[in-house]
Fold this protein.
Amino acid sequence: MIYAILRRFGQMLFVMFGISVIVFLIFFATPGSDPAARIAGRNASPEVLEAVRHNFGFDRPLYVQYGLMMKKIFVTGDLTSFVNRGWKVVPAVLDSIPVTLSLVFGAAVLWVVVSIIIGIVAAATRDSWVDKLLMALGLLGISMPVYWLGEVMNLITQSRYHDTWLFSWVPPLGYKNFSDDPKGWFLALVIPWVTLAILYIGIYGRVLRAAIIESMQEDYIRTARAKGLSETRILLRHALRTSLIAFVTLFGLDFGALVGGSALLTEVVFGLQGIGKLTYDALQSLDLPMIMATVMYASMFVVVANAIVDFVYILLDPRVRTS
Amino acid sequence: MIEKDRPILETRELSKRFSIGTRFSSQGRRTVHAVDNVSLTVQHGETVGLVGESGCGKSTLARCLVRLYDITDGQLLFEGDDITAKSLAELRPFRRRLQMVFQDPSASLNPRRRVGDLVAEPLRIHTKLSSREITKRVAELFDLVGLLPDHVMRYPHEFSGGQRQRVGIARAIALNPDLVVLDEPVSALDVSVQAQIVNLLADLQEKLKLTYIFIAHDLSVVRQVSTRIAVMYLGSIVEEGPAEELFATPAHPYSQALISAVPVVETTPSGQRRRIILTGDVPSPLNPPSGCRFHPRCPIAVDKCRVERPALTEHRSGRRIACHFPTLK
Amino acid sequence: MMLSVRDLRVSFRTHEGLVRAIDGVSFDLKEGEILGVVGESGSGKTVSLLAVMGLITDPNAVIEGSIRYRERELVGLPARELRRLRGSEIAMIFQDPMTALTPVYTIGWQIAEQIRAHKRISKSQALERVEELLAEVNFPNPREAMSRYPHQLSGGMRQRAVIAMALSCNPALLVADEPTTALDVTVQAGILDLVRKLRATHNSAVVFITHDMGVVSELADRVMVMYAGRVVERGSRTELFSDPQHPYTRALLGSIPPLTGEKPHRLPAIPGSPPSLLRLPEGCAFGPRCPVNYEPCRAGKPVLGDGNHAAACFRVQA
Ligand SMILES: Nc1ncnc2c1ncn2[C@@H]1O[C@H](COP(=O)(O)OP(=O)(O)O)[C@@H](O)[C@H]1O
Ligand SMILES: Nc1ncnc2c1ncn2[C@@H]1O[C@H](COP(=O)(O)OP(=O)(O)O)[C@@H](O)[C@H]1O
Ligand code: SF4
Ligand SMILES: [Mg+2]
Ligand SMILES: [Mg+2]
């Protein structure tokens, strides 16, 4: 077990190294373009260009440039944005991490809990009107674009019905630090959580229902019935448990991607300064140091999330433990 | 002209090993000793039966014999020609004389093609027959295996299991092979249909002068079709001999246990045969036991068996046994 | 009589029409008796016993007839009461030990689960009982085996675990659906031995399904031969094997190659293949394959007479 964890950790470092090299090469070693000019942004003065060139070591070999870059990101943390002069990139990324994590984590709790309930109820009442209704709602959730849904939510809770008792508690858009104001943190995030979770509730509820129904056809369910277990126990302890394996795989992928910046649209709609928003802005202004840093962060998170999924997988499925 | 006194197929210390896992998997890279040092000679016109518990390497050996697998060690000779390491192109002339029939007739037939097409396929690939000649040959083959002429237009799923296996056999004999390797050809069939296929195989052998290598886990079926039988355990042959003789007086403790375990219809309640029940499971071919590979389950094993591996030695003409203490009658 | 099945009919509504999987099956089982049920695949062996266990969950199934277990009618019994019987008084062993156990729980957990579903005992008491049971089905190291997952055991060992599970509540009736078909003969021999021993120690009645005539003849006290959803012959083991009556039984016995003695040049084979239940032939279902059929066979369906040894055949009854 310890060995497996260490090995996994080693693989993770290796993958991150690979990603950093690739990203570095794409942005800094593409022939025919001067990385210094790109880092400095449009209309930079020759002095700034010179400073950049020296600062990043562009007058030295590629591997030195790579080393300097990594040092700036991971060791000294003093990589600076050249678009917003003097803005330190690493603290900016670190500041936006809690925002994204709060958003995605809360939404994930919501969507996991709700979709498990929906999946179980739909599978248990399979083909009845309850099942059909739940699945139709799920499909609706999947087909609503997050951006549009977010705008509608804002319209309802921020302006149209803001003054009714129903939504008067909703604070203005924006993020509050958990450590400063736990209640404000929670209230500010409720609507974004719901918005982000709806899509995933739809997907996960449907996936889980299908997986449970498939498990219910397995021979071991027949054995469980022959043992005289109740239908509830069969569903929860035997069918659900084996169905969760597919569920967890999907969850790991989505969670990793969202934390890595895919919650972008939700962040933009609700004015949350998260990783997605940061990447979005950096791409808009071609802010290379910022892009480099966010991509590194995102890939790290996807890899970490995958590693966590693998561990949960091992816990859930004894078959992968020995082979 | 084929020399009749030369064996049609011969293996010399043939081994097949599989590597599983990678250096990075938890137990690292490991080797499955699926077939281990098998020397077997098959004469023209005979049927050699291979028996043994599942996982003992029968299918792997069969696939090595028709070179569906590359051979790890040892030699494979077809009518004296060494075909152990021949390339695909060099194998072409041998391929048509060496055919294989698989267990699951439905898995080995493409469900989207008409069975007439499926049987014609090897003819189109390996011969220069015109399409009229091919149609004629397919009709001939259908007649040979007991299918009706109008069956050519059907799809595999429109057939019963027994009929599908007939199609599989027609395909295998389309090119007039000399040797057919049959891997569990009747195991997936209903009891009442098995006998039909067994009879069909016997008829074809007589008509077409075929040589068979026949694998089945039903021992009485193997005895019925085979002239000679080789008993395998953990990748190796432990006993080999004429079919009826081997069944009447098995000499290796494993053959004895295997044959005694077959339930037979007793008409009188008192006629229970003495049964040897083996304890424990078949050891893993990843990590075969020392000495005689059967010793952990052998009822008569002694210290010598744990250390020294018995060689497959000839005891009487046509009877080879790999045991330090064979029961010789 | 412990189990008394009368005129059991099970049909499935399918796209292609009504499949009459079981078409009027009746049989009796005494306490402590082993009944062998033989027949080719599709003859209705599994469906008839799933019906007895109340385990047919297909909403398209129609079940008719009567199944009396110790004077209680099981057809139409509320699910709750049926569940109380299942696993405690009536236990079942299935064909494929590879898929019959839930892959994510240990053997010990799964057996204890069944015990605790029927008895009010503590977890540790249940686990003690599990250890005893595993020892009884000849696990060399029961304590260690309890913590194994199904995939860590060989097929034979899994089937033993399933048997231990079935025995956990001392069932009066054990239903075994081809428990050895997926196993090697060497492993099968051990399992058959075990079933015999258990009948002796627990005095359970056993219904043993198989397609192997050899297995029935070694194990069963009485035998029932099925073809296309009906019972074609019934009798004690000795009667059935020394004096088979129905042409199908005779033909089936004849087509088994002998293990000793002279080899026949050709096997006496049965022509054709078992009929589709959607398109059963007129009259006797075996008619088209029967070597001795004559006019009456096409006119009506032969019925199984009363008596200990009976065959559903016009020739035999004529
Ligand atoms: N492609 C393969 N890779 C790894 N192991 C294999 C492969 N094919 C077969 N084996 C192993 O080789 C052994 C012999 O298998 P097989 O020849 O299929 O046995 P049999 O046909 O007698 O049941 C088994 O332990 C099996 O797991
Ligand atoms: N759920 C079902 N729907 C339709 N047909 C079924 C269903 N279950 C079983 N059958 C049919 O019932 C017949 C009897 O099946 P079964 O009892 O499993 O046979 P056996 O166990 O003797 O091999 C088969 O023809 C099978 O196709
Ligand atoms: S060599 Fe020894 S262990 Fe092997 S089979 Fe013979 S007696 Fe048994
Ligand atoms: Mg095989
Ligand atoms: Mg069945």
